[in-house]
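job 3f2a | input accepted
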Amino acid sequence: MGLFGGDKNVVPATLESFKDGLVGLGFDVQQKDETTLMAKHQTYFNVVLRLSSNRKEALFLSYFGVQPSVQRMELLEAINSCNQSVTVSTFSIDKDGDVVMSRCLPCHNGYTVSQFEYVIEESMREIAVAAAKHLKEYLK
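job 3f2a | predicted structure (140 res):
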């Protein structure tokens, strides 16, 4: 049994393998460039996946628009509260002022399907809990 309770079969860390995994979970996936996938889902939050050029890590990102009237300090306090309530994900503000949730999957020796599914499922859970508890009044 693998680290996250599943298979031991290691999948090579390629954009194609990540695309296949996202499609398998019901995402509509488009390749943006040689390192980035854009994935949309009817139930889950949308995901941007960036594979490092050395294929040693995959960064999962979800972006959330912020209401224009929100004060930056209020939003930063809410993001700090989010970060205190999550285990692996990190919430931040991007250069456009949107909220970003990020989570990294180390994959220098590949990854298992179970690890991939865990990252997606846990990210979605953490987004839902943190957003509902700390961010909902600030998001569009």
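job 3f2a | The domain at 10-135 is CATH 3.30.1460.10 (Yope Regulator; Chain: A,).
job 3f2a | closed
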